[in-house]
Known about the structure:
Layout: H1 5-19, E1 26-30, E2 33-37, E3 42-47, E4 51-55, E5 58-62, E6 65-70, H2 74-88
Antiparallel strand pairs: 1-2, 2-3, 3-6, 4-5
Helix pairs in contact: 1-2
Amino acid sequence: MSISHVDFMRLIPGATEKGLGVENAHVNIDGLTITLGRADKCVVISLSEETERRLGGFRLPVTHVEFSFKGLNEAEINKFLDAFDRTFHRGGG
């Protein structure tokens, strides 16, 4: 993703609220690993070190993101990923 760690951490609560659908969900941040949910139903997001992509004079932050899911069925995973996509979507014009 073309996003800094700071921006990712700022936006992730929106995806959690909209898409996880787990009552009493918690957000735990441990370095570059974010756990959303409860022990029995959670999403674990692992972030890479932040790097940079250069395009001419532009410098864009780059963070690779990996998801793992525990205790969520396919519909719940899709709901979370849809909310994640909507939260992190950046429109252009």
